[in-house]
């Protein structure tokens, strides 16, 4: 049985060009995933941490979107450098990266929290 300490999901969803919701692939979701993969390899975490690319998680306008379980921490606008920071501070260090919290980004960008 797999018993990961953390499980990371990275949205890599792609939509047709011009789609009103946009998508994480066009915002660099694949580069974000590659950065997570590199960190997993470098740190030898494949046995302890799950990492999966996924389709749409919902908050497309603030993608690339990442969610980390078991805490259920949602991150937005996660680029490759952010992915490396999440690995260092959250996954290894146990301290989620507050500045990338989806709630924080919604407040900054849209002036309110995520839709209910
Ligand atoms: S396309 Fe990534 S959250 Fe919707």
Characterization of this structure:
The protein is an alpha+beta fold and 116 residues long. The protein has one domain (6-110): Glutaredoxin (3-Layer(aba) Sandwich). It has helices at 29-43, 80-92, 102-110, and strands at 6-11, 49-54, 66-69, 73-75. Helix 1 packs across helix 2. The protein is globular and about 40 Å long. The termini are far apart. The structure holds FE2/S2 (inorganic) cluster (FES). FE2/S2 (inorganic) cluster is lined by residues 11, 13, 23-24, 56-60, 63, 65. Residues 11, 13, 23-24, 56-60, 63, 65 line the site of FE2/S2 (inorganic) cluster.
Proportion of helical residues: 25-40%
Please name the fourth-level CATH homologous superfamily: Glutaredoxin
Bound molecules: FE2/S2 (inorganic) cluster
Q: What characteristic shape results from the CA principal axes?
A: globular
The string of secondary-structure elements, in order, is: EHEEEHH
Question: How many runs of DSSP E, i.e. beta strands?
Answer: 4
Largest sheet, described in full? 4 strands, mixed
CATH architecture: 3-Layer(aba) Sandwich
* Helical run tally: 3
Radius of gyration: 14 Å
Low-confidence stretches: none
Quote the beta fraction: 15-25%
Could you say what the CATH topology is called?
Glutaredoxin
**Structural class determined from secondary elements:** alpha+beta
Q: Please, how many domains?
A: 1
Report the CATH C-level class: Alpha Beta
Average pLDDT value? 93
How far the N terminus sits from the C terminus, by CA atoms, comes to: 35 Å
Query: Looking across the biggest beta sheet, what order are the strands in?
Result: 2-1-3-4
């Amino acid at each position: 049985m797999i018993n990961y300490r953390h499980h990371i999901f990275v949205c890599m969803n792609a939509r047709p060009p011009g789609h009103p919701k946009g998508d994480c692939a066009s915002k660099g979701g694949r580069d974000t995933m590659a950065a997570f993969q590199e960190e997993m390899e470098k740190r030898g975490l494949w046995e302890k941490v799950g990492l999966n690319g996924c389709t749409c998680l919902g908050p497309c306008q603030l993608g690339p979107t990442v969610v980390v379980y078991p805490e259920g921490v949602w991150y937005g606008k996660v680029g490759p450098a952010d992915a490396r920071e999440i690995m260092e501070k959250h996954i290894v260090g146990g301290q989620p990266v507050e500045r990338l919290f989806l709630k924080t980004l919604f407040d900054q960008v849209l002036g309110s929290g995520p839709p209910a």
